Amino acid sequence: MKFIQVIEQTGDIQEVVAHTKNYLETVNDTKVRKVQLCTDRDDPTKILNIVTFDSAESAGQNDDLEETQESAAKEQAETDITYRNLDLHYEYNR
């Protein structure tokens, strides 16, 4: 079952985009399948990072990577972050 992690934070979207691109380009063993970075239209400092994995297990493997732990620690030191862990039960793409 696909697994989605929604990461809610505040900050500058350009900095988050740059940080995310750097992570994805430098971590060879990442289990991430898809990333969507979104801002709230009513408050552009509110950022949602929607990350898709093949399964909760692959997300756990990704969390165990040293680079992931370093990246998460850096982000958490800079802003309050809320993680939401979701199992995907239905998906429609057109």
Question: What can you tell me about this protein's structure?
Answer:
The protein has a single domain, classed as Alpha-Beta Plaits. A four-stranded antiparallel beta sheet has the order 2-3-1-4. By secondary structure, the protein is an alpha+beta fold. It is built from three helices and four strands. A hairpin with a 2-residue loop joins β2 and β3.
What's the SSE blueprint?
Layout: E1 3-10, H1 13-26, E2 34-40, E3 43-53, H2 56-63, H3 66-78, E4 81-87
Antiparallel strand pairs: 1-3, 1-4, 2-3
Properties at a glance:
single chain; 94 residues; alpha+beta; Alpha-Beta Plaits; 4-stranded antiparallel sheet; 4 strands; globular
Q: What fraction strand?
A: 35-45%
Structural class: alpha+beta
Low-pLDDT regions: none
How far apart the termini lie comes to 20 Å
CATH architect. name = 2-Layer Sandwich
Order of helices and strands: EHEEHHE
Taken together, the total number of domains comes to 1
Taking Cα atoms only, what radius of gyration do you get, to the nearest Å?
A: 13 Å
Short description:
With 94 residues, this protein is α+β, with helices and mostly antiparallel strands. It is 37% helix and 35% strand. Strands 2-3-1-4 form a 4-stranded antiparallel β-sheet.
